[in-house]
Amino acid sequence: MKAIRYHDHGDADVLTVDDVPTPEPGADEVLVRIHAASVNPIDTYVRDGGVEPAGGLPHVGGADMAGVVEAVGSGVEGFAVGDRVFATGLGLFEAGTYAEYVAAPAESLATLPDEVSFAEGAAAAMAFATAWRGLIDRGELDIGDACVVQGGTGGVGHAAVQIAAQAGATVVATASGDEAFVRDLGAADVVDYGADDVVDRIREAAGGDVDVVLETHAAANVATDLDVLTRGGRIVVLGEEAPIRIDPGASMTGKITDADLRFMSIMASRDDQVPILERVGPRLADGRFEVEIEATYPLEEAAEAQRHVMSSGSRGKVVLEVA
Ligand SMILES: NC(=O)c1ccc[n+]([C@@H]2O[C@H](COP(=O)([O-])OP(=O)(O)OC[C@H]3O[C@@H](n4cnc5c(N)ncnc54)[C@H](OP(=O)(O)O)[C@@H]3O)[C@@H](O)[C@H]2O)c1
User: Which residue numbers delimit the Enoyl reductase (ER) domain (predicted)?
Assistant: First the structure.
């Protein structure tokens, strides 16, 4: 089969199109014929060497996919040849999804409804699972809460705006552009994250202090988040490749009052992923959720697709068409 691998860590140029044996599913695995994969920032962090994939190099990158079951391992129940499935969180503990086939743990797979295209399924998987887990499970978002989504135009951000709005929160999103796109997803207001008066503008838009922040760029924004947070509010940090600086002295002066900084990983929370994806699928099918696909590339152009994702000004998701 064709697979996009890297033999050394480095920038997108290390990605190569290789012919490799089609994997055999283990007892607890399902062989999936991949129709679409999507591209996430984590794919580039693993490629860079910031995170070491289990199994070492060479490595097939990619965490998200949608496709059709081709074969099932001897111990697998609940999946049959021909089933449509989607998944996220692959490509760190096993081979990834930039390939024609993947042998995926059965416990990582969710059913992809017939109404949802493979491209939509692959695009939605990590974005919606991360946003859902971040807001609802880690952020404990409640009806009537005020919520900030930092980076509302991005893959996770545009999913988060929809989830938070449908959960009954007042959503203030930040973005560097395309306000109309984010408002149409359900944001009550959109604030430029680079504005000098970003704290005042978030408070004004939220009608006061904020209960939950979903933070996609903590290194840049955590001071703002702490400033706008209500007492006992939650900041859910999604992680990026930069350290964050916090002044703990502010916790003694009343500026930061019982602020709760929480972290999460969708890659390392397989138990939580599938129940979320099983609820995301039907919502994509009936139109309650929409996944924005900004660009599609053929599998062979994975390097270009990764450059696209890491460029500024993109909106929604980038998808690799595999078959
Ligand atoms: N913990 C987890 O399990 C998990 C899972 C998925 C993603 N993540 C992390 O979450 C982040 C977002 O992922 P993604 O897939 O949504 O990426 P993405 O599609 O590339 O979106 C990034 C978004 O962030 C915006 N942005 C850039 N600088 C910003 C700033 N200083 N403040 C606020 N927003 C800013 C961008 O807007 P402009 O382009 O307009 O600047 C863009 O909308 C990444 O750091 C990723 O690693 C974590």
Answer: 10-320
Ligand 1 contacts CB of residue 105 (under 6 A): no
Over residues 43-72, the pLDDT tens digits come to 999 999 988 999 999 999 999 999 999 999
**pLDDT tops 90 at residue 29:** yes
* Contact partners, residue 316, CB within 8 Å, separation at least 6: 123, 153, 154, 155, 158, 291, 292, 293, 294
Query: Which of these, 41, 39, 53, lies nearest to 9 by C-alpha position?
Result: 53
- Minimum CA distance residue for ligand 1 atom 2: 265
Give residue 154 CA to ligand 1 midpoint distance, Å: 6
pLDDT per position as a tens digit, 138-176? 999 999 999 999 999 999 999 999 999 999 999 999 999
Interval 246-291: pLDDT, tens: 888 877 777 787 899 999 999 888 889 999 999 999 999 999 999 9
The predicted model scores a pTM of: 0.97
Q: Whose CA is nearest to atom 13 of ligand 1?
A: 156
* Residue whose pair of structure tokens reads 């916790």 in the numeric block: 251
Domains, in order of start, for the chain: 2-125+269-321 (3.90.180.10), 126-264 (3.40.50.720)
In angstroms, the Cα distances linking 142 to 94, 211, 229, 323 are 36, 9, 15, 41
Closest among 229, 236, 48, 260 to 157, alpha carbons compared: 236
For the chain, the 3-state helix, strand and coil shares in percent, each to the nearest 5, are 30, 30, 40
CA nearest to 84, candidates 313, 309, 277, 264: 277
Q: What are phi and psi of 295, to 5 degrees?
A: -155, 150
